[in-house]
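User: I'm preparing a small set of examples for a lab meeting where we compare how different chains pack in three dimensions. I only have the primary sequence for this one, and I'd like the structure in token form so I can line it up with the others. Please keep the answer compact; I'll paste it straight into my notes.
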Amino acid sequence: MARARAAHGFPAAWLGIVAAGGVLSAMSAPGQTAGLSVFTDPIIADLGISRSAVSLSYLIGTLIGALALPFLGRAMDRWSLRATIAGIGLAFAGFLYALSFAVDATGLTLGFTGIRLAGQGALSLAATTLVARSITRHRGLALGLASAIGSGGISIAPFALSGLVAGVGIQAAWRLEAFAVLCIVVPTALLLRGASGRKSPDRLDAGFADADGSGWTLAQASRTAMFWMLVAGVSVTGLLTTALAFHQISVLGAQGLGPAEAAANFLPQTISGIAATLGAGALADRIAPKYCVTFSMAAMAAALLLVPSVSPGWPAIAFGLVLGAAGGSLRGIEAAAFSRYFGTVHIGSIRGFATSIGLAATALGPILLSLARDVAGNYVGPLLVFAALPLVVGVVSVLIREPRALAAH
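Assistant: Understood. Below is the structure token output for the 409-residue chain.
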């Protein structure tokens, strides 16, 4: 029987997997920095702890959560993705619910560990692994679309959650988030059909999954320069975008923007980020993915170099557009690049390891920028120095050779 086809010739199964990946990615919002940012001041007020204590809890929780990701990546290669995603959803909901009972810094740290691991780490990794392993035709476009849906959902989360927190308080807000995760993530996982692990390649739609069962292992991939260039790109982007997002009100405030104007800068970042995610995903099917990494690194360096010239109005909007394009293009290409160069049989292990390093970088970004500001007395100097990081990775991405065929190893 012929497969049903949706608009523009894409099979219904293709669109279904993309939609599922996008929804799962968007539902990671409660564990993402954007989703947690609206809780910071209410936590300080309700729990009676300092801003430094909250930041330290975030740092410790993120680093501990990052350590577990390689093991979860291996589980995704070995076990059914359907069962793994459902398990992640149950754990994520449980951690959010438990977090609502935190009364001190210790409880907060434990809660942050759980939701950073299950939300930003495991659920995000599972969403893109699902798409990468299930689709080969226009895989880059599929990953770009799924990432764009997820980015859009994560970007609007602060606006929705800020009203929720103001209306019902942080404890009830966390419990409602837990309920939402339980009602959306778990059913989405259970509706997936045929999502399997490494021993039986996925067959969500016949003709779309990898058929030969071959692929690089983490050990083989980690012996290539391309692997470490991609890890460096993920880590540098995570470190710098999280540092800027965490301190955005303060950074832009130092350039003359009021709190409302500084917060509004997330809008141009979101718009250009989603556009860049889609564009990078589509280009991944046509050009070597490493060149999209080059673009991302160039845009990140440009954003940092623009900081001294930021002022209210169009200069601030231009900064937001460039910064959003930097992060969005990397999100749109990262999963496709790992899949293109190393296959999908062990993609959970490979990206689990890479994501753990990237997640650790997001934890270090805010505190590194804060310490650098204390030393320099301003944000401009440190950010100009930090611009060297993406510049170096960008140059390497141009010069680096693509891995040889696996058979050559």
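A couple of notes for your slides: The chain has a mean pLDDT of 85. The two ends are 41 Å apart (CA to CA).

User: Perfect, thanks.
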